[in-house]
Amino acid sequence: MAALRWASVPVPEGMSLVSFDEDECLAFLDVPVTSVAMPLVELGSAAVDALIARVEGGSERDVLVREPMRMVHRESVAPRRA
To answer: What is the domain extent for residue 44?
Structure first.
């Protein structure tokens, strides 16, 4: 947002801004920022399960979490243009 402000690009009129990894402090910025919220509890749980399996002699494997991410809508995204 600072770079957009430095370049005189207004948010969201000139450019929409979306953050990845929801943080409640985003709601308190000059322009509250829309963000993608990750399923952190599910990610952590799946990572721990994979680590335990590895420690117990299992093979290394990717961690896949099927819980959907969710969009936290705030004022930093402009309506779609016609």
So the answer is: 2-72
Residue 2, helix vs strand vs coil: helix
Task: With respect to residue 27, please indicate whether it lies within any of the assigned structural domains.
Answer: yes
Question: What's the average pLDDT block by block, 10 residues per block, for the chain (82 residues)?
Answer: 94 95 92 94 89 85 83 94 78
Domain count, the chain: 1
CA atoms of 67 and 15, how far apart (whole Å) = 29
- pTM, rounded to two decimals: 0.72
Query: How are beta strands 70-72 and 18-20 bridged, if at all?
Result: unpaired
Backbone angles phi, psi at 36, to 5 degrees: -100, 125
DSSP line for 19-75: EES--GGGGGSSSPPEEEEP-HHHHHHHHHHHHHHHHTTPPP------SPPEEE--T
* CA 63 – CA 19 distance, rounded (Å): 23
